[in-house]
């Protein structure tokens, strides 16, 4: 193995370890209160809930539930911060499905297709024009949905 391959392998291993440590810490920090709450409800009598108070008890439950959601939302953030492969793949997916990015991608493909042969260019341009029209229709529907939601 060459030196560059060894250093690349070592860098990938460090990224993997950092990723796993981050995911595990987030998991325990976010799910520990939920598990403690479940243990409390299981092993302590129902009178202990009355001692805490109904409002405080519900606030604790809502906080525990929020932390479970934070755990799920935090995983992709940690992946993005640590993994360059995840970052590249995520950017690729965004470019494919984002309205604004996809429109640019379609326009770039049309410009590239002009250099092809005449028959291919017409087929390619009509295909990407149909995709662009479909994408614009989808964006309009999403905007209309957002306007309707804000009006209500």
UniProtKB/TrEMBL annotation:
Main subcellular location of this protein, as a coarse class: membrane
Keywords, sorted A to Z: G-protein coupled receptor, Membrane, Receptor, Transducer, Transmembrane, Transmembrane helix
Designated name of the protein: G-protein coupled receptors family 1 profile domain-containing protein
Species name: Candidula unifasciata
Keyword tRNA-binding: no
A molecular function (GO) term: G protein-coupled receptor activity
InterPro entries tied to this protein: GPCR_Rhodpsn, GPCR_Rhodpsn_7TM
GO CC annotation: plasma membrane
PANTHER family in the record: G-PROTEIN COUPLED RECEPTOR, THYROTROPIN-RELEASING HORMONE RECEPTOR
């Amino acid at each position: 193995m060459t030196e560059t391959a060894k250093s690349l392998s070592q860098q990938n291993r460090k990224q993997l370890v950092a990723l796993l440590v981050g995911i595990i810490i987030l998991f325990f920090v976010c799910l520990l209160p939920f598990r403690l709450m479940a243990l409390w409800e299981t092993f302590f009598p129902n009178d202990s809930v009355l001692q805490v108070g109904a409002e405080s008890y519900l606030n604790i439950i809502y906080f525990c539930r929020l932390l479970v959601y934070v755990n799920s939302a935090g995983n992709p953030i940690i992946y993005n911060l640590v993994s360059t492969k995840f970052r590249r793949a995520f950017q690729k997916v965004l470019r494919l499905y984002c309205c604004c990015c996809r429109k640019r991608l379609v326009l770039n493909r049309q410009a590239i297709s002009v250099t092809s042969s005449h028959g291919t260019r017409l087929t390619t341009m009509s295909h990407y024009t149909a995709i662009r029209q479909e994408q614009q229709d989808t964006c309009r529907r999403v905007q209309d949905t957002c306007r309707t939601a804000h009006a209500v």
